Target: Glycerol-1-phosphate dehydrogenase [NAD(P)+]
Amino acid sequence: MRYWQEYLRDINMDEILNMQINDMAKVEFECSCGRKHFLDIDKIVMGQGVISRLPEILSDYVKEKIYILYDQNTYRAAGRKVKEVLEDADFQVKCTVLDSGDQILIPDEKAVGKMFMELEAGTGMIVAVGSGTLNDMAKYMSSRTKIPYTIVCTAPSMDGYASSGAPLMNGGRKISYTATLAYAIVGDTDVMKEAPMRMILAGYGDIIGKLTCLADWRLSHELTGEYYCETIVKLVQKAIQKVVDHRKGLEQRQEEAVRYLIEALTLTGVAMGLAGNSRPASGAEHMLSHYWEMKVIARGENPELHGIKVGIATPVIAEVFDEMQDLFPESVKEMAPSADQIKTLMKEAGAPIKPQEAGLDKDLFYRGILEGNTVRDRFSILDLAVKENRIERIARKITDEYYQE
Ligand SMILES: [Zn+2]
Ligand SMILES: [Zn+2]
Model:
């Protein structure tokens, strides 16, 4: 899948658990789960002021054309700086602004088409400056053109920086394209701590969602024999713990809190890469969130940020776990947080938990719990509740709690 790959570094399994994220690029290890894991990202560089290190990060491409992509918001946040830093170091750059400025950037035929039309022959590296949308567009172009891409993150808002899937809009529908991993991920905390608070809280919601997601993975392992990797789970849990420990610093935009958040979001992507699928990052809370999103898009409304919806869905799924406790083994109980615990973690960070805040009405909320398991073929607590004929009662109970007058 990779075309600029040269080598991977062999490490042993325990090392990965004690590594800093900046050292995880290009690792490979034999794991107790029986698989050999590898991570095909060349460079992960996170920290304060790291944008100024771009010339060094991209030094292999100094003789080639660099295609920089941003929208008007991300230009102000970091794009201008990226351009200046590279120009000052004698890189040949070509820049494209992908939005018209009067609305949010939608990754549809028009925007993707513009991105391709402005691509000059002889381009050696794509540099996207942005978060979810720009990253998705750039990784899609990278996979189709075989030109590597670098993402300069502008907000710690979601966990897709290190993942290979690219959801784009085509014909009015959201389609998930298989794309490629980044050559480099550059996360400058000076930029990200200034991101809109809603985006920071969305990133936090996406991380809190991993708590139910990992419990779902374990549940499926116990009940269906699905592949499970203890090392990957520990890796993600460690990263979540740091975010949770610093949750109260997010609203104050504390550098440390923001750094742990972007590290955990990137690491979840890394974990997906190691597992070979999104199991370590996406469980029933994501299905619920996707269900709501599809219905909202079908109504022609603008969906709320991904992580905000995941954050709202997580205590709901935790409550489904609470209701099903008698039916699963101790190992799952240890991993499944209670709904109250999750709600407290959300509230203490200042993150929303009311479905009404994401524009969800009572019926849509209820249907999501009832039919969320149909979103994808991946065993979760929702499937167990359906199988045991409890889902209707649970969905009704939770909905009534959330929508009581
Ligand atoms: Zn493993
Ligand atoms: Zn997510």
Observations:
- The chain is about 50% helix and 15% strand.
- Confidence is low (pLDDT under 50) at residues 1-5.
- The chain has two domains: 43-192, 198-226+279-402.
- Residues 344 and 388 are 29 Å apart (CA to CA).
